[in-house]
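User: Now give one protein:

AI:
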Amino acid sequence: MTTPDMKPLGDIRVLSVTVFLAGPFLGMTLARFGAEVIKIEVPGGGDPIRGMGPFAGPEGVHSERQTDEDVSTRYLKRSEGVKSVTLNLKDPAGRQMFLDLAKQADVVIENLSPGSMKRLQLGYDDVAKVNPGIIYCSISGYGQTGPYKDLAAHDYQIQAMSGIMDMNGAADGPPTRVGFFVGDLVTPLFAAYSILGALRHREKTGNGQYLDASMMDTLASLMFMETIEDAVHEGKTLRAGNDGRGDPTGLYRLTDGDVFITVGTAARWKNLCNAIGAEEVFANPRYATASDRTMHVGELRHEIQSRLGKLDCAAATELLEAASIPTAPVRTLPEVMADDHFRDRGTLRPMYRAGVDAPVERGVMSGFPVTFSGGELPALEGGAQLGAHSEEVYDALLGLDAATLAELRKKGVV
């Protein structure tokens, strides 16, 4: 028996004025839960990410666009299940059409520069006048208030300003950024469940509200889940590279690769010494307490490396797992992409263009990393061509016929 699709947000309509990554990922996340997400794009151009390759089309994947049907794979990754309409928000007629759409929406999301929507007279206060129950969420680098709000911000600057780079890299090396756009991708997740909380609040009170999500605030809040203030107070460096900060936890080089092991507890330390034939190290009073091991952690890493380094990854993993030491080989991205674990769980899957049955050559689409016993999240259409849903949306929500839309196109409104 086939389990039906689960659409917990199937009755929610979202207007999305979003570009690049953070905002589009928020829109796609809501669409994955069944929301109708309508992306408002600039006529003739759309989201700037549409112009950034590689491009997928009838002739395959290329660094430059080959046909009018080609779509940026970056756009495809960020727009699954999202409808695309074109609308000139700088035009008075376009602004009014947006407000007319907002009257029938539950949520507005945007990630333009702070103040941009206000200057267009489409900020939260403007929309709330026509729809008091609206949930309006803005994502920006530094937030809508504060001394940094007007600074230009991409994920690189946010990682620098948040302090997260000060935690990454070798102790004797430079600050190092996280290797993917962590601020751009984690902030929309906070925003998504904040929107769900605001929708639940509206169910109870009837009141809409404004949500201000900051990428820098997001990273800072995550970092301080650790007791890093103690290390700062004691003048310790937080930069530890691939090592743990207080014990021999860390990365070890083997004959055919690397493994990462976690020690952490006294029991694991004993098990590790026994497993690698270092009983004399365990018995050495120099390393008797956790504080002792922290003080001499460099020596201990050398002792472990000298023994483990003679093994290959398979032998070391078997040895350490038998001793109840958390261990994992450091895998390459090609190895991860080839692992059926991710295909079986739906975490990674083929990428598709809207209206095309064949998957994109070598395209990998991020799935949703949580499974539900109540059913599967809906299968969504791939990212759409610019304005592909204009006729559908404007007819259904605003009652505009083809002739009217044609006239609006001539005027540059849609």
Notes: The CA atoms of residues 6 and 374 lie 7 Å apart. The two ends are 45 Å apart (CA to CA). Residues 250-332 form a domain with the formyl-coa transferase, domain 3 fold (CATH 3.30.1540.10). The longest strand covers residues 36-41.
